[in-house]
């Protein structure tokens, strides 16, 4: 059992897959992070049906891995002295940091989706950037998602 779970987790980190039901495709949910980068690099996800009560209620267990990798160009960085006073740039809120281009942001997500057909509950575990003063190591995400 443990070996099978580790194999599933390794598969999630290598490939991206999702479950289709009829004409509806479950798409990844984009997240707000406390680091700034223009590129969303990787989003591996899957829906598994191994818990009987969850299967009976037509909920979906969700295991996902999200990664954000990129950089912020100098012309778009309001923190640089050359861009001070530029009215076209938006300033970052307190607690937001510029992402290191050599170190991607990564998180692991475990959750239950399809509660009442539109509600999701997820546990999110941050895998890096934990030393920032405004970054919690884990959190709960509650999502209302309508798909037609």
Report on the structure:
The chain has 148 residues and is mainly β. It has one domain. The protein has helices at 2-14, 52-56; strands spanning 20-21, 24-25, 35-36, 42-48, 60-68, 97-98, 105-115, 119-126, 138-144. Strands 4-5-7-8-9 form a five-stranded antiparallel beta sheet, covered by helices on one side. It has a two-stranded antiparallel sheet with strand order 1-2. Strand 1 and strand 2 (24-25) form a beta hairpin.
Short description:
The protein has helices at residues 2-14, 52-56; strands spanning 20-21, 24-25, 35-36, 42-48, 60-68, 97-98, 105-115, 119-126, 138-144. The protein has 148 residues and is mostly beta strands. It has a 5-stranded antiparallel beta sheet with strand order 4-5-7-8-9, with helices on one face.
